[in-house]
């Protein structure tokens, strides 16, 4: 959650950029396809915490402020480059002006309701919206099953409120999976060993039918860290990798499987990321986004932050980049879409010799438009090429029926991160964040388990403490610390949410003991409810009522 927590360089501008460069362009692309009789059948994960922010009045104010700034930047930058005799760059300011005006008009036309517009497209059968953990908590490393139940139940209730129905599937945050086994917390004071259920058991308990995992968990290929070439990633993390083969009998990433841990009581269908198509889209070295004609992500003009240069040559210094040519980039979009659809067709043809097959190609949504500016146009062209060439797109919910699971298997632990394990999120630089989180989880469970008859003020304090815990659990904070992309901001957010959680739990104890709410405490509670406004219908008992006993 970034609304009410700064603006630039880290804060709500991240969300504004994503809305203008990713979510609105995706909606524009889907609307164009539907108008031409093409149903893209994309599966889109809109996280609960994202939906809460996109639907908030505060976000609408931030979007308007951001739009005014970029529009002003177009005018000022045009004058700057014209005065310096760089007419080709100055002309590109008209390109950006038209782009932002078009996105703002779309935003106005849908009444600013991005989640509601996606919900309408789902109701019409053009997309499927799935969920993820409420605040994208890194589920395998949370120390309490109560926390996982809380993340899942909050996600489902929030999804239902925004999209009119419960989700059938889930994007496991960071594709991070954990089977059933005797687990010991990797850090913190309490290092007691105890049995924990596999994530598929917890998903099944909440009616979630399927999830996506990385192909290396099937021994189908090496893990590929999706952010490697977009972040200044540190490589001194060490630790073992879970990329070792997990099965002696080859398993295909083009099949689906029922996932069940030995001794477990629930199962879910697993889809697996296709290594071939993934490489073509994620890799800046080998894939489409690195083509020299596309817009360079890293070079911006300040003030204003507009981008005017193409990649040109990945090995050249930013100062030597050539001027972006939109027409040349559009030609590359068409070429790369044709190549991708041919690759999918060939992959399916080879895989279907063993039975019904599916190519599952999941990506971070912000790759399309934000990191790779031409990404939404490429997605649209892929949908058109598929329709032209008879390749059937399917949302995951449709694929469950069309490609039934071949058999029941167990999976090892892992993620889609560097090394295929947890090292991006748990390492020497982030261990202190987990120490605080584990302490907060234990304190939260103790408090809410004795709060069945809480009065109004106590319920408010417990609910806000639960929101702060959920925000503390976000996988973004250790990720940003590890990659170094916004380390100071992430460390500050961890410290703030932990401190606010502690203040609220102390407040809750005083209220539980019969003390009245002081003026200072009441103001603190109101401020935090206003700043961290997510999940207004949150019930702290959602976690404890379903949590497994330690």
* General shape: globular
Distance N terminus to C terminus?
30 Å
Class by helix and strand content?
mainly alpha
Our Rg estimate from Cα atoms comes to: 24 Å
Strand segment tally: 9
Low-pLDDT ranges: 224-248
What assembly state would you assign to the polypeptide chains in this entry? single chain
Strand order of the largest sheet: 3-6-8-7-9
Please state roughly what percent of the residues sit in beta strands, choosing from under 5%, 5-15%, 15-25%, 25-35%, 35-45% or over 45%: 5-15%
Biggest beta sheet summary:
5 strands, mixed
User: What's the tally of helices?
Assistant: 17
The run of helices and strands is HEHHHHEHEEEHEEEHHHHEHHHHHH
Classify the helix fraction into a percent range: 40-55%
Mean pLDDT over the full residue set: 92
How is this structure best described in words?
The protein has 17 helices and nine strands. It has helices at 12-35, 48-54, 57-83, 87-109, 114-123, 145-163, 199-205, 275-282, 326-351, 375-389, 396-402, 431-448, 456-472, 476-483, 487-512, 519-531, 541-544, and strands at residues 42-45, 127-130, 169-170, 181-183, 194-196, 210-213, 257-259, 268-272, 408-409. The strands form three sheets. A five-stranded mixed beta sheet has the order 3-6-8-7-9. Helix 13 (456-472) runs antiparallel to helix 15. The model is unreliable at 224-248 (pLDDT under 50).
Question: What layout of secondary structure does this protein have?
Answer:
Elements: H1 12-35, E1 42-45, H2 48-54, H3 57-83, H4 87-109, H5 114-123, E2 127-130, H6 145-163, E3 169-170, E4 181-183, E5 194-196, H7 199-205, E6 210-213, E7 257-259, E8 268-272, H8 275-282, H9 326-351, H10 375-389, H11 396-402, E9 408-409, H12 431-448, H13 456-472, H14 476-483, H15 487-512, H16 519-531, H17 541-544
Parallel strand pairs: 1-2, 3-6, 6-8, 7-9
Antiparallel strand pairs: 4-5, 7-8
């Amino acid at each position: 959650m970034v609304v009410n927590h700064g603006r630039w360089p880290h804060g709500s501008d991240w969300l504004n950029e994503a809305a203008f460069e990713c979510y609105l362009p995706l909606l524009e692309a889907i609307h164009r396809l539907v108008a031409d009789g093409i149903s893209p059948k994309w599966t889109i994960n809109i996280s609960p915490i994202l939906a809460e922010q996109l639907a908030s009045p505060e976000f609408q104010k931030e979007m308007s402020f951001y739009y005014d700034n970029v529009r002003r930047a177009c005018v000022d930058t045009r004058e700057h480059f014209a005065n310096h005799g760089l007419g080709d760059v100055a002309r590109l300011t008209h390109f950006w002006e038209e782009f932002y005006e078009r996105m703002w008009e779309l935003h106005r036309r849908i009444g600013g309701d991005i989640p509601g517009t996606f919900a309408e497209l789902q109701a019409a059968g053009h997309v499927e919206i799935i969920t993820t953990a409420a605040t994208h908590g890194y589920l395998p490393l949370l120390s309490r099953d109560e926390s996982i139940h809380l993340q899942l139940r909050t996600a489902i209730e929030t999804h239902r409120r925004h999209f009119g129905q419960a989700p059938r599937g889930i994007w496991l945050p960071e594709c991070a999976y954990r089977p059933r086994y005797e687990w010991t917390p990797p850090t913190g004071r309490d290092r007691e060993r105890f049995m924990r259920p596999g994530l598929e058991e917890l998903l099944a308990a909440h009616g979630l039918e399927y999830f996506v995992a990385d192909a290396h968990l099937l021994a189908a290929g090496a893990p590929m860290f999706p952010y490697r070439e977009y972040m200044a990633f540190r490589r001194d993390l060490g630790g073992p990798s879970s990329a070792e083969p997990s099965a002696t009998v080859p398993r295909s990433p083009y099949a689906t499987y029922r996932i069940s841990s030995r001794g477990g009581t629930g199962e879910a269908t697993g889809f697996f990321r296709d290594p071939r198509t993934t490489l073509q889209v994620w890799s800046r070295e080998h894939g489409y986004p690195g083509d020299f004609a596309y817009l360079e992500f890293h070079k911006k003009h300040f003030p204003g932050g507009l981008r005017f240069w193409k990649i040109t040559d990945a090995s050249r210094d930013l100062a030597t980049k050539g001027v972006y040519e939109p027409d040349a980039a559009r030609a590359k979009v068409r070429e790369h879409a044709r190549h991708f659809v041919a690759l999918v067709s060939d992959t399916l043809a080879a895989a279907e010799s063993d039975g019904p097959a599916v190519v599952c190609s999941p990506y971070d949504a912000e790759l399309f438009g934000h990191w790779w500016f031409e990404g939404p146009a490429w997605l649209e062209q892929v949908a058109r090429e598929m329709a032209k060439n008879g390749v059937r797109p399917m949302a995951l919910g449709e694929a469950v029926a069309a490609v039934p699971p071949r058999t029941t298997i167990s999976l090892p632990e892992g993620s889609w991160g560097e090394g295929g394990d947890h090292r991006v999120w748990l390492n020497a630089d982030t261990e202190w964040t987990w120490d605080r989180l584990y302490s907060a989880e234990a304190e939260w469970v103790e408090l809410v388990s004795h709060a069945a008859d809480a009065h109004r003020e106590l319920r408010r304090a417990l609910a806000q403490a639960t929101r702060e815990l959920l925000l503390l659990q976000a996988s973004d904070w250790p990720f940003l610390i590890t990659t170094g992309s916004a380390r100071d901001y992430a460390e500050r957010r961890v410290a703030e949410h932990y401190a606010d959680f502690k203040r609220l739990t102390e407040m809750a104890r005083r209220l539980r003991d019969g003390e009245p709410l002081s003026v200072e405490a009441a103001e603190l509670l109101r401020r935090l409810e206003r700043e961290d406004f997510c999940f207004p219908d949150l019930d702290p008992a959602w976690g404890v009522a379903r949590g497994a006993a330690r």
